[in-house]
């Protein structure tokens, strides 16, 4: 009986110590988080980059636009690369007042015409510059812009200049693979989406509501 009671007391003490240890760790974590929140008081327009070879970059960008509109912010979207196919995000966001400019040529391997692609890219970039010069637009999504820079369809220096000179409180999101290092260096937040598996590689076609 005595041994059993002693064993029970040891178990109780061990549980109490575990609870206290967990509470102490969480308290320290809370203090660190609160310290960061207290020190992060600057407000400015952010440049967000979402790059990498994984699925979900554009989806993330559109999700952020939807969040902004939900808070009453104004937004504009320029879609590079995209064709004339149906876009679920556009169907919703245009109804909420978000403006769209679409390059509409589709993928470069579809057109197989560099001159046509460059002309379309330049036109889409002109639409981008209008948004980036407009203080009434709170957020701009430049979807798949990275490809245009990699292919040299849009001049990198023009992009950097427009980003640096945009309205002070305007947020910009740039998506696409292989983002140029100078844009990443300029960005306030840069995320890389990596691919682990993709349904398309297993022979599953792109599906409405998931892929577009």
Overview of this protein structure:
With 212 residues, this protein is an alpha/beta fold. It folds into 2 domains: 1-41; 47-202, P-loop containing nucleotide triphosphate hydrolases (Rossmann fold), CATH 3.40.50.300. The protein has 8 helices and 6 strands, in the order H-E-H-E-H-E-H-H-E-H-H-E-H-E. The chain has a 6-stranded parallel beta sheet with strand order 3-2-4-5-1-6, sandwiched between helices. The mean pLDDT is 86.
Q: What about the largest sheet?
A: 6 strands, parallel
Name the shape in a single word.
globular
CATH topology of the largest domain: Rossmann fold
The radius of gyration over CA amounts to: 24 Å
Q: How many domains, as an integer? A: 2
Tell me which oligomeric state these chains represent. single chain
Quick one: CATH superfamily of the largest domain?
A: P-loop containing nucleotide triphosphate hydrolases
* Element string (H = helix, E = strand): HEHEHEHHEHHEHE
Q: State the helicity in percent bands.
A: 40-55%
The count of DSSP E runs of length 2 or more, i.e. the number of strands, is 6
Mean pLDDT: 86
Please identify the top-level CATH class of the largest domain: Alpha Beta
Q: Label the structural class.
A: alpha/beta
